[in-house]
Amino acid sequence: MTIGLKENIQKFLQELQSFDCKLIAVSKTYPVETILEAYNQGIRIFGENKVQELLPKSEALPKDIQWHLIGHLQTNKVKYIAPFIHLIHSVDSFKLLQEINKQAVKNNRVISCLLQIYIADEETKFGLSFEETKSLLESTELENMNNVLIKGFMGMATNTENEEQIRMEFKSLKSFFEQCRIEIQRKNIALSELSMGMSGDYRIALEEGSTMIRVGSAIFGRRNYI
Ligand SMILES: *Cc1c(COP(=O)(O)O)cnc(C)c1O
Asked: Which is the closest atom of ligand 1 to the Cα of 89?
């Protein structure tokens, strides 16, 4: 048994009761046994950031798990997850979206996606700007992609102690989201999800309207990077 896992999960499920928000348990780096413990506590949505780690886990674990890809996705890896992935949070280019659509066609599926939007004051984070997002959503090329469904946006705030900064970043994403919801009506766009908030900043994200928090270490304990 992983120490504290059950208590951590109970705490999150209880905290989320008053919000319309889903918990994505980020299981990257944790072994299959630990994920199964969380599964036995009722968790059904797990997030992984690497395709090569997600594949063996998805094969070993129960089939009613909804797997979410939350990390940067290379176009040449899309084919491996296309048969089963429930939601891709990290679509950050038109080229990637095209490949997801192509692989979705091959698998006779519609794959749900979030566009990853850059809101942090950092150089390293992937993502689209608001302008790039807008032009992607309004492009004629997107209109012809019948096998992707854009369900919303994902954003990561700056890794800082400054809560006001984090809150402003989440607020800006939320207001852009609401603006796009009003302005953009298309058959393969149905903006309902806003994936924001991790272990360190999920409370702020909840207050600012997150519909999906992605929580790893606050559930599973500290990750050991080997
Ligand atoms: C690792 C990761 C998380 C979870 O991080 P914690 O701080 O452990 O909660 C959330 N989102 C993304 C994109 C991640 O890579």
From this structure: 13
